[in-house]
Amino acid sequence: MSLRELRSASALLIVAALVSSCSAHGSKSSEATTPAASSESSTSKFVKHSPAHGLTFEAPNPITSDKQPVKDDAGMSRINYYVTDEANPALIDVEYYTDHSQTAASISEEDKKSYSEDGISVSPKKTTVKGSSSAYTFTWEQSATPPWNNDTKEIDLSCQAIVADGPSGYAYGVYICTPKGNTKGHEMTQNIIKSIEIKSS
């Protein structure tokens, strides 16, 4: 299964927040994390998260996450965060590689190819991430139907990605999807993107 396919499957979970209660997540439901630190924004409480060595970002509460990162055969580890505000839900998919197995540039190229296989065109562009020597960003839109409810219409999502090089041979991808047309969701995405920081220790 490609990176895009894994991400698309995860994006389906956030769609569930729009069409069903939290219990619809069933056995794949994430448990609440204990915040390491927090800061206040003008709209809600943002909490700092450190999903991988050197990487931090801030996201609004209430938020849940996978208990542990899941590593695939290609050496990619991933962990999902779900902003569970029913009015402004979001999926934050964090993926990372170690041991110099990938770079921000190679991840961007792989994402571009993977998305194109599903008819989605993305154009990674150079960007700046605090503490990173090289970073890229791209946006896309997609529609998804919850797999457990075929009677539910597809919901449009707006998404943005940041991929960045980190210390000690790490490379990261942070992918955020919110309901298309949700102004607060767009603002939340931008706040999360701006909060991404990479430190060497």
Summarize it:
The chain has 201 residues and is α+β, with helices and mostly antiparallel strands.
Q: How would you describe this structure to a colleague?
A:
The protein is built from 3 helices and 13 strands, in the order αββββββββαββββαβ. The protein has 201 residues and is α+β, with helices and mostly antiparallel strands. The strands form 2 sheets. Strands 1, 5, 6, 7, 8, 9, 10, 11 and 12 form a 9-stranded antiparallel sheet that branches. The longest helix has 17 residues, at 3-19.
Secondary-structure class: alpha+beta
Shape label: globular
Low-pLDDT segments, ≥5 res: 1-6, 13-43
Give the biggest sheet: 9 strands, antiparallel
Q: Tally of extended strands?
A: 13
Distance between the ends: 33 Å
Q: Report strand %.
A: 35-45%
Along the chain, the helix and strand elements come as: HEEEEEEEEHEEEEHE
Kindly state the mean pLDDT as a whole number?
Answer: 79
Number of helices: 3
